[in-house]
Predict the structure.
Amino acid sequence: MNIIEINDLSHSVLSVYTQLSEAQLLHLYEPNGGIFIAESPKVIERALDAGYEPISVLIDETELKKEANAILNKCSDLPIYTAAHDVLTKLTGFHLTRGMLCAMRRPPHKDLQSVCEGAGRIAVLENVVNPTNVGAIIRSAAALNMDAVLLTPGCADPLYRRAIRVSMGTVFQIPFTYIGTSQEDWTNNGIHILHELGFSVAAMALCENTIPIDDPKLMQEEKLAIILGTEGEGLAQSTIASSDYTIKIPMAHGVDSLNVAAASAIAFFQLGKKCLP
């Protein structure tokens, strides 16, 4: 392995881990795309298994012969930067999750048609701006029978470090891409695009004219897109008005809403079940 011990904490090769913001990483190699940081052996392994291209590794020296060893063997021709635990804590400004980070190249966005091809249930995120919620929703989507995740241009990036970490690497296991080239494009054409792809559209919203998520009509839909809105404000009125269904989770004790990630898990569990005959 190409193991390089770190002595100079200001070395330029470490800037992707220590100095550059998510936005800077996103645009680092334009026009040839940027990079992202995957964290922890399990997450990194899932990214490698999904075909993502690693650039370098930063690892706590105590982890070299533990769980990470098998992963490092897959990256043996890459620079593997290592140092003592206390040095890396100072270097990164926080405790490394399971002692390992990996810089990886961002692939081009997948084609919307190919992501949705053959899908029966998809999740659509409208302007969900919190990376933690995006990661949690993607994890639920992967676990609870969604076939793909679509994001509007206003959403947090699924490949932000926190989103990846919260998703436990499932962001690499379920297809995702963007719908609409801009916020205006989504507002004007998004539901039409979903209909053209053959999906009926169910908008999750706190409205009076709703049906419960276990309504038999929903279960009988061969192809269903479930739209979840931004934290606080929820879905745009134009999205709700253009959808085929408006659905709501029945709640008790006067509670009027759930966090969008919690709501997604309930909706995906119910609506991800096999269609009724």
The chain has twelve helices and twelve strands.
